[in-house]
Design a protein that fits this description.
24% of the residues lie in helices and 28% in strands. It is globular and about 55 Å long. By secondary structure, it is of the alpha/beta class. The structure holds NADP nicotinamide-adenine-dinucleotide phosphate. Residues 10-20 have a biased composition (Basic and acidic residues).
Length: 304
């Protein structure tokens, strides 16, 4: 098969489109024929790109751990899927990713694709969808009627956080640069705070939950707008200040089939959509990484 691989530690310049062995799915895996994949721009800096879970060198390594495709093989001992099922999901960071014609994925990391999304949209959803879900509900404990501030609402993750929070019946205060205001409102935000013009602590009162995707000084100051009993959740870095009488949380997203099923249902029934900023052919993966690092908004998707 053709795959994009990196042979030694370094940046995206080392990504090469080349012949590689088609992976053999282990018990519990399925083999997926990749139609689209997506990636995190800094995943080449992570230890999991270079070693397996036992710390052994696993180069050459295939990046891009979000996949949408068609099941092409189901080994004996794997259950839940059949050949030709259309699936999407977030794959194990410590194994080869989906920048390839085929990827072997643990079946428990996949779900059936939403009917209403194409492969490109479905590949853009797993990481940001699961991150938004886990931050709002698992770590933030969001319930209907609460008020949530979403920092970076125009970004890949923030745009899903706004949609999920609004759908859950929360009052949503979106923040970011002024250019993100229209998108945030279209996605369901009640209010937008332009961080280039206003300080968050001057613009809003006490809220139940802050979901931060930006970090730094904004994250530190946001502890002050969380009411007692509320939560400050960041996906960027651990919050340096804990809200008075409240909680602070930082987490790293995990694969989760049940949550993917719920995200797929929301895509089909409530119009949940990821923001796809650009699409590149698999052979141009290095350029796709470079383009995302130059600041393309939303997710950049690779098409196999
Ligand atoms: N912990 C986890 O599991 C997890 C999961 C997913 C992502 N992440 C991390 O979370 C961060 C966000 O990811 P993402 O994919 O959502 O990124 P993204 O698509 O680049 O979104 C970030 C958003 O925040 C805005 N922003 C950044 N700095 C700002 C500032 N100083 N003032 C106002 N707006 C600002 C950006 O606007 P501009 O584009 O105009 O700058 C953009 O709209 C990344 O660092 C990523 O690695 C962590």
């Amino acid at each position: 098969m053709k795959a994009v691989r990196i042979h030694s530690k370094g940046g995206h310049e080392g990504l090469v489109h080349e012949d590689a062995p088609t992976p053999t799915p282990a018990t519990g895996d399925v083999l997926v024929e990749v139609r689209a994949a997506s990636f995190v721009p800094d995943e080449l800096d992570w230890g999991s790109t270079w070693t397996d879970r036992a710390g052994r060198d696993r180069t050459p390594s295939v990046p891009a751990h979000e996949v949408a495709g068609v099941v092409s093989e189901v080994p004996v001992g794997t259950s839940g899927f059949a050949v030709n099922d259309r699936v999407f999901g977030l794959t194990d960071w410590h194994r080869d990713g989906a920048a390839a014609e085929f990827v072997a994925v643990e079946a428990r990391s996949l779900a059936r694709m939403p009917e209403s999304l194409d492969f490109t949209q479905a590949a853009a959803l797993p990481l940001i969808g699961l991150t938004a879900w886990q931050g709002l509900f698992d770590h933030g404990g969001l319930t209907a009627g609460q008020t949530v501030v979403v920092h970076g609402a125009g970004g890949g993750t923030g745009s899903i956080v706004v949609q999920l929070a609004a759908h859950a019946g929360a009052r949503v205060i979106a923040t970011g640069r002024g250019k993100a205001a229209d998108l945030a409102r279209q996605l369901g935000a009640d209010t937008f705070v332009d961080l280039e013009k206003e300080r968050i602590e001057d613009a809003v009162g006490q809220v139940d939950l802050v979901f931060d995707t930006i970090g730094g000084d904004l994250l530190a100051r946001s502890a002050g707008i969380v009411r007692p009993g509320g939560v400050l959740v960041s996906i960027y870095e651990p919050p340096p200040v804990v809200p008075e009488g409240g909680r602070a949380a930082f987490f790293v997203v995990e694969p989760n089939r049940e949550q993917l099923v719920q995200l797929a249902e929301l895509a089909d029934t409530a119009g949940l959509r990821p923001h796809v900023g650009a699409v590149y052919p698999l052979a141009d993966t290095a350029e796709a990484f470079a383009a995302k690092q130059r600041g393309i908004p939303g997710k950049v998707v690779l098409q196999a």
